[in-house]
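Researcher: Can you fold this with nicotinamide-adenine-dinucleotide in place?
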Amino acid sequence: MRVLVTGGAGFIGSNLVTALTMSGNDVGIIDDFSSGKAENLNGLAWFREMDILDPALDAVVAEFAPEAVVHLAAQPSVAASVKDPERDWAVNVEGTRAVARAAAAAGARRVLSASSAAVYGEPAEVPLLETSLKAPANPYGRSKLAAETSLAETLAPLGVDFASLRFSNVFGPRQDGRGEGGVVSIFATKMMAGELPVIYGDGGQTRDFIYVGDVVAAIVAALFADSVLGAAAMPDGPAYNISTGKELPVDQLAGMMRSAALFARPFPHEPAREGDVARSALDPSKAFAAFGWQARASLEASLKLTLTWFQGQA
Ligand SMILES: NC(=O)c1ccc[n+]([C@@H]2O[C@H](COP(=O)([O-])OP(=O)(O)OC[C@H]3O[C@@H](n4cnc5c(N)ncnc54)[C@H](O)[C@@H]3O)[C@@H](O)[C@H]2O)c1
């Protein structure tokens, strides 16, 4: 299949591109390196450096002529969305609309777009279903929710199949551990530098941590699914949780990472940050019913693999 990956120089995108090229697909990448890295680019993939908001996007997508598009390019940081909500909205909402339009005009038959657990805000129930209350607590969550609507508004009338994939907390090799990346990458980066990572709050807060290999497998399963993913008849239409459904307290995660890395010193605690949710887990059973995917990676093994990768970077 000819698959265009926006954000293919990023963490999830570059892992996806590796999997797609290894299984013989023709892959194209569009990325502006705003958070992605040139070293993540796959030499087997077609590549254009550009902002998805560039008016030349249609022509560039038409040049690659994808059969499917996986849209991962986004302003991915909650903190940056608070500092500059206009840019966050432009990239995440208008950017999704632009990618969807360009994909349809180029003849793509399916568009998958990255959404997030952030669309739910503080969970009304755990685990969250796709139909659970959506009350995003920051501009990033709001733009990701609006992007889902942009995608549907653009593609449903054109008969292009689509889905928004709501990822929980993704971790794995190539995640940026310096900025605001995921907690696993931040803990790993600090430990490798001999520094002490900080746990905000009492550590009892839970997250649904999913290995990037499982996320890549979900995207691939959705790309090749025979069923129509955007069918409005399904609960909450074209949105799918991509998650494990399991809650893990951050303290327990820290303990697992410390023992895997043989890091003796306990991590200090600091007061909880405003806006951090107390519990989070997303029920992934709709994705299993629709395209037969479920997370399979063992947490211990995937944390070890991730730590080994970070060790290689130190
Ligand atoms: N990592 C997670 O835990 C997580 C969780 C939920 C959702 N997501 C979503 O998954 C997607 C991928 O996230 P990631 O963790 O790989 O982040 P990432 O920052 O590593 O990747 C995003 C990529 O998009 C590119 N990009 C950003 N703005 C662009 C623009 N205007 N034009 C072209 N390229 C642009 C960046 O350079 C980068 O390569 C994002 O949509 C993100 O919101 C990630």
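Model: Folded with nicotinamide-adenine-dinucleotide in place. The first strand starts at residue 2 and ends at 6.
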